[in-house]
Amino acid sequence: MAVDIRAHDIPEHLSIAVIGAGIAGIGLAVRLREAGFEDFLVFERADDLGGTWRANTYPGAACDVPSHLYSYSFAPNPDWSRTYGTQPEILAYLRGVADEHDVRRYMRFGADLEQARWDEPENRWRLRTGRGELTADILISAVGPFSEAQIPAMPGRDTFAGKQFHSLHWDHEHDLTGERVAVIGTGASAVQFIPEIQPVVDSLTVFQRSAPWIVSRLDRTTTGVERAALRRMPLLGKAIRGAFYAGIEGFGLVGFVDKRFRHPYETLSKLQLLRQVRDPELRRKLTPDYVIGCKRAIFSDAYFPALTQPNVEVVTEGIREIRPHSVVTADGVEHPVDTLIWGTGFGMPAGVFERIHGADGLSIADHYHRRPSSYLGAAIAGFPNFFCTLGPFGAAGNQSAIYMIEAQLHYIVDALRTMREQGFGRVEVRKDVQSAFLDEVAERSRETAWLTGGCRSYYQTADGHNSGLYPNWSFEYRRRTRRFDAESYELSGR
To answer: Are strands 113-119 and 107-109 parallel, antiparallel or unpaired?
Structure first.
């Protein structure tokens, strides 16, 4: 019997349970409805949709992919106010898409996934959420990879007497005006919020483990004439989207084709550093010692100028310990601190993978720590009736995440449509197919900038292997996921 999704309680059983109401969860809900599926719910631990763009509210939060590309292909927005969308504008866009396609009613908020276990005899998933227990025929993880804050276990961190928080959990009630602030980490989030807080703090100490490659952002406000033209001529928006796609896709030349293609990109970055940082000693600190693309390159025009201000110090010595009112570096220097901000990124994989247990009783995280594994980043052997978005080797280092997510949504919905039309009740990717895919990925990853570029990053596992990036062109990935390849799966009746 079909579930009445207009009710706000949790039913005893669902055909499809989706975890996460971010970009992937919203898009999946839209695509499921378009394909005629109604017996599904999206479970979200927060009190609203939006995922990354609901959670990250730090000053200066914005996307580093142009908005015309960082949006759903089925929901173009001609009214972006800037080349790169800011957090409030992107969140408003996602809410608008959900409302326009009437998918909020399929969402249950405050329903954190506490545990999911595959029930082999019953051939279904048993779920425990923050709002109750249920079973589901199909489980889909639409949780992003950057949903869990990562704070390193530095000696003395718990003894710090001042205020401390991670950029993911920004404390807007805490006034930084006139304070001595320390920022640990120089990743993408820190590069965005440092220029925002620098003018108001008394002193800012930036602890940098390795210098990021910074490339000019070239952001600007869009004009009313541009927006009017985009509203009247949708093909113009598609052309702009295509141009941005081609430009970003070109980063693959450095990532997985040949590192010698790095020179034009590195030259542009070095010229920007030379132009914006006149002090040779500071410029030396801010010059990366690894190949661009080995770590994520960051787009900013404000970061370098902020670091040149008289109230900012960049420290490259390693941190020895944290004391109640200071941070002590390896050279013995004590840096006084009132507020400590962690810009240390996110845990990989998403924490929800620790709670999803497959046919062998092991969690996805257990399998991940042995070897990141999936098929096309969308299915995992040993996890029947399970699909995911941006799973291992389903994310691209050279393309908009939304482009990859949409390819996966098409693939997953086609799989569900195939199951429905042909009467299959169980689907699981074949182990030999997944193994062949992983061998292909490993071979193509051997000489990539991610593994041989002279750095350590979340692109790599602890033993130096590719942690989950797709080492090929995104259009090639789109070709591979244009239809559900049933021959790669073990399929059986209900």
So the answer is: unpaired
Mark 466-478 as b/e (b = at least 16 C-beta within 10 Å).
Answer: bbbbbbbbbeebb
Per-residue buried b or exposed e for 244-277, using 16+ beta carbons within 10 Å of the residue's own CB: bbeebbebbbbbbbebebbeebbeebbebbeebb
The whole-angstrom separation of Cα 463 and Cα 443 is 16
490 vs 284: CA distance, rounded Å? 56
pTM: 0.95
Structure tokens at 379: 């299915």
Q: How far apart are CA 366 and CA 372, in angstroms?
A: 9
Tokens at residue 471, please?
Answer: 């080492």
**In sequence order, what E strands does 142-227 have?**
163-166, 180-184, 203-207, 214-215
Q: Three-class SS of residue 26?
A: helix
Per DSSP, the three-state class of 177 is coil
Picking from 359, 382, 394, the residue whose alpha carbon sits closest to that of residue 429 is 382
Which pLDDT tens digits describe the chain residue by residue (494 residues)? Answer: 455 555 568 899 999 999 999 999 999 999 999 999 999 999 999 999 999 999 999 999 999 999 999 999 999 999 999 999 999 999 999 999 999 999 999 999 999 999 999 999 999 999 999 999 999 999 999 998 878 889 999 999 999 999 999 999 999 999 999 999 999 999 999 999 999 999 999 999 999 999 999 999 999 999 999 999 999 999 999 999 999 999 999 999 999 999 999 999 999 999 999 999 999 999 999 999 999 999 989 999 999 999 999 999 999 999 999 999 999 999 999 999 999 999 998 876 668 999 999 999 999 999 988 899 999 999 999 999 999 999 999 999 899 999 999 999 999 999 999 999 999 999 999 999 999 999 999 999 999 999 999 998 889 998 899 999 999 999 999 999 999 999 999 999 86
Encoded tokens for 152: 């390193």
